[in-house]
């Protein structure tokens, strides 16, 4: 009787084990469900979609935000949107099933392809932004600030083409290795893991950081030159006033101690052509050394004949604010994705290194959270984005 009971117990255990196996395989599934991962994943998807949609709408609907830098930001937002729509739902589904993959390996390969491509596109977009900003600071005369020109079109196109090239080996079968475990969805080829990590992260990041260092060094030199020019302008205006005051009787119509041009330049209001007199063409004062001079001809004040050309060589306050936001975006990206790429590469190159699955899951979630951070960063650090978001949300709620 005892032997029969033991045999029955063994049969029940074998049947329960067979029910927990993946259909068509001999792999045992996890029997638990990760409800917190499902809730957090759904909330993250909603936040990413809503935030990045607002970013895209703000650039296309708000005239003040239609700048070349913001078109690159739209490209970055599109990558985050595609991640939320094409990658995160399947990833959340797998995490909800305690990390067990129950769908086909073909779907898994498609998921891995999109995951690699969109992550690579995100960092390549940040790299393209750094190249664009470096050009804007280094050679501003040749930089088109209003419209996307050929150089910027090439940068945007190369961003997505190169990202697809890095990810394409997965869809072409590099993931089909012998003894592949169909209950796991991951990159199976260790050499490809290293290749994709180097191309997607470890090469672009140093290049991007070097370009930003060069950009801010150039921006600092530009600021110093601008302040020196203002000081020279103030001194020239004061000398002119002193000369006029020494030769003329006191008149109520004389210019104020500091002409409006100085105040205008100090406030640096962008996007409007300068209508103030050029410092290189001062007030025309008649010769007064040989005889008394009673008037100063304000009618002969000369305006800048080519305001648009001079303005193109100038970095306005809106662009300087955008440049200050971009390092925060880059810093957030590096903070969120560096742990993942370090552990991902270490696990591929060091089979004996023990990387707990829970830790790998945490750093993967941290990387995906980055897609929700960029709209928050724009809202905090960019007044124009913040004003549009408030206006749009108020319009939707009212």
What does this structure look like?
- With 398 residues, this protein is mainly α.
- The chain folds into two domains: 32-219 and 323-397, Rhopdopsin 7-helix transmembrane proteins, CATH 1.20.1070.10; 235-312, no CATH class.
- The chain has twelve helices and no strands.
- Helix 10 (317-349) runs antiparallel to helix 11.
- It starts with a helix and ends with a helix.
- It comes from Solea senegalensis (Senegalese sole).
- Its main location: membrane.
- One of its GO terms (biological process) is regulation of dopamine secretion.
- InterPro entries: GPCR_Rhodpsn, GPCR_Rhodpsn_7TM.
- It holds the Pfam family 7tm_1.
Strand-helix topology:
Elements (H helix, E strand, L loop, with lengths): L1 H18 L15 H27 L6 H29 L8 H34 L11 H25 L15 H13 L1 H44 L12 H8 L39 H6 L4 H33 L7 H25 L1 H15 L1
Helix pairs in contact: 2-3, 2-11, 3-4, 3-11, 4-5, 4-6, 4-7, 4-10, 5-6, 6-10, 10-11, 11-12
């Amino acid at each position: 009787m005892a032997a029969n009971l033991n045999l029955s117990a063994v049969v029940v255990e074998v049947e329960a084990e067979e029910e927990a196996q993946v259909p068509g395989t001999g792999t045992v599934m996890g029997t638990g469900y990760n409800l917190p991962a499902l809730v957090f994943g759904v909330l993250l998807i909603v936040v990413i979609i809503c935030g990045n949609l607002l970013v895209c709408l703000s650039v296309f609907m708000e005239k003040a935000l239609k700048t070349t830098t913001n078109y690159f930001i739209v490209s970055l937002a599109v990558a985050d949107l595609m991640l939320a729509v094409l990658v995160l739902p399947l990833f959340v589904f797998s995490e909800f099933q305690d990390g067990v993959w129950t769908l086909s390996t073909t779907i898994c390969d498609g998921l891995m392809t999109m995951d690699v491509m969109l992550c690579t596109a995100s960092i390549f977009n940040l790299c393209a932004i750094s190249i664009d900003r470096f050009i804007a600071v280094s050679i501003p005369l040749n930089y088109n600030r209003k419209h996307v020109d050929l150089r910027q079109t090439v940068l945007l196109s190369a961003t997505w083409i190169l990202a697809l090239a890095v990810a394409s080996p997965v869809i072409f079968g590099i993931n089909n290795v012998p003894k592949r475990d169909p209950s796991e969805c991951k990159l199976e080829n260790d050499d490809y893991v290293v290749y994709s990590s180097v191309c997607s992260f470890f090469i672009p990041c140093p290049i991007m950081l070097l370009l930003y260092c060069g950009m801010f060094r150039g921006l600092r030199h530009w600021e110093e030159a601008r302040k020196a020019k203002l000081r020279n302008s103030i001194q020239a205006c004061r000398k002119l006033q002193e000369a006029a005051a020494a030769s003329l009787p006191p008149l109520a119509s004389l210019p104020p101690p500091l002409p409006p041009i100085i105040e205008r330049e100090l406030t640096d209001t962008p996007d409007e052509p300068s209508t103030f007199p050029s410092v290189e063409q001062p007030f025309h004062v008649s010769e007064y050394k040989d005889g008394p001079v009673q008037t100063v001809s304000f009618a002969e004040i000369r305006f800048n004949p080519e305001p648009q050309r001079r303005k193109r060589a100038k970095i306005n306050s809106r662009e300087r604010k955008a440049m200050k936001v971009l390092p925060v975006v880059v810093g957030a990206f590096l903070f969120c994705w560096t742990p993942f790429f370090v552990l991902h590469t270490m696990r591929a190159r060091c089979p004996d290194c023990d990387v707990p699955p829970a830790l790998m899951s945490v750093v993967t979630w941290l990387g995906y959270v980055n897609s929700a951070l960029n709209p928050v960063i724009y809202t905090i650090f960019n007044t124009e984005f913040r004003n549009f978001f408030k206006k749009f949300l108020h319009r939707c709620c009212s």
